[in-house]
Amino acid sequence: MAVPYADLNLQYQTIKSEIDAAIAGVISGSAFIRGSYVDAFEREFAEAAEVRHCVSCANGTDALYLAMKALKVKPGDQVITTAHSWISTAAMITHAGADVVFCDTDDTTFTIDPAAIEAAITPRTVGIIPVHLYGQPADMDAIMAIAARHKLWVIEDCAQAHLARYKGKMVGTFGAAATYSFYPGKNLGAMGDAGAVVTNDSALAEYMTMVARHGGLVKHQHQIEGINSRLDGLQAGILSAKLPHLSAWTKARQDAAKAYDAGLNQIEDVVVPSVAPERSHVYHLYTIRHPRRDALAAHLGANGVQTAINYPTALPFLAAYQRLGHRAEEFPNAHRDQGQILSLPMFAEITRAQQDEVIDLVRKF
Ligand SMILES: *Cc1c(COP(=O)(O)O)cnc(C)c1O
After folding, report:
1. Looking at the structure, do residues 65 and 149 belong to the same domain, yes or no?
2. How far is CA 61 from the centre of its chain?
3. What is the pLDDT of residue 1?
4. Is the pLDDT of residue 130 over 90?
5. Distance from the CA of 11 to the CA of which of 99, 103, 274, 330 falls in 20 to 30 A?
6. In what order do the strands lie in the sheet with 53-57?
7. 3-class DSSP assignment, residue 89
């Protein structure tokens, strides 16, 4: 039996009539840019994310840029982020004008190690961007305590963590702002690029809106030099059609993760994802560790099971950051993980039979 890594068409088939109606509505209303579908999705997503303001934008990468511009990041500032994430998190620090400072991940959760943050702070540090990687919240109590002590802002990168909670509180509600991606493969995915930045601070929301709309809130009145970053109406309509299903899809991912845990955790050399106490993991990815990762991936691939490596090179070791001259010993956990991580097929509609196939193949290996 072939097991895909994800299956976006399957999800579409389950709600086809709702999606098709939304698309037809946007087209017949010519609501392509701004308009009622975008306004509605911003309201609905703010409610779902338990925040006061949602500023939609073109993608989750722009969302990080908008948040940092609104927080007035300037040349010479240092912003701390995790050594292991998608490059957007770090690249936008540079594009916003600051210097990126990497911290290692902790030993077990793949999220930023608060002890490393404390050690990395200098008089130039202005903020911290933790990433709730794979869908597990970072250690927000520890991060917020450090931020308060040193008067730093926090932007949470929630691109992989829609509806995840830390001690019962929704991710994205701890820091000054939080960013989301609705890239098609994310837990809430559009049918193209889409993103948002959320906040409880109305002044910040207004400034982010201005940056995203050519620097002005009123047409032809440009207060600053902004960018053009908008969620289009079709994507908004699609996202509004999907949003009511997100809780059930999240629950299905969590149930699938339990089935993987039960099947995999007795197998020698397999390290299943470890969830820290009082954190709810929404399993954007189900990522194991294995000392012979490449051989295991090849074995699964040869038997029809698709896997992925997120991410094969930790950020400090990418060519893009060669200028920083980092060495492996500075980020021992991220360095170990990049060679051992393997993301298994994970999507809300995955069947137990498909998962048993994956588990069997891992056991045989
Ligand atoms: C997907 C992702 C982003 C970027 O989102 P896009 O919508 O693809 O621009 C940023 N950070 C993390 C952690 C992501 O997973």
Report:
1. yes
2. 10
3. 85
4. yes
5. 274
6. 53-57, 195-199, 177-181, 153-157, 125-129, 78-82, 99-103
7. helix
Q: How confident is the model at residue 112 (pLDDT cuts 50, 70, 90)?
A: very high
Cα separation, 265 vs 282, whole angstroms? 19
Same domain, yes or no: 133 and 187:
yes
pLDDT tens-digit readout, 166-207: 999 999 999 999 999 999 999 999 999 999 999 999 999 999
pLDDT value, residue 2: 93
Q: Half-sphere exposure of 139 toward its Cβ, with a 13 Å CA cutoff?
A: 20
Dihedral sign computed on CA atoms, order 301, 290, 344, 195: negative
Average pLDDT, the chain: 98
Atom of ligand 1 nearest to the CA of 62: 9
Residue 188 Cα to ligand 1 middle (Å): 12
The rounded distance, in Å, linking the Cα atoms of 259 and 197 is 33
Answer whether the bond into residue 311 is a cis peptide, omega within 30°: yes
Write phi, then psi, for 227 (nearest 5 degrees): -125, 175
3-state secondary structure at position 153? strand
CB 338 within 8 A of CB 311: yes
Determine the structural domain holding residue 292 and report its residue range. 246-364
Angle, vertex CA 280, rays to CA 105 and CA 332, nearest 5:
10
Measured from CB, residues less than 6 Å from any atom of ligand 1 are 59-61, 85-86, 88-89, 131, 157, 159-160, 181, 183, 193, 195
Domain containing 235 — which CATH number?
A: 3.40.640.10
CA angle 243, 254, 162 (to 5 degrees): 35
CA of 32 to the centre of ligand 1 (A): 23
Count: domains in the chain: 2
| Cα 56 to ligand 1 centre (Å) | 14
Mutation pick for ligand 1 pocket among 57, 81, 131, 160 (CB with most ligand atoms within 8 Å): 160
Instruction: Report the run of H or E that residue 80 belongs to, with start and end.
Output: strand 78-82
Please state the rounded mean pLDDT for residues 59-71.
98
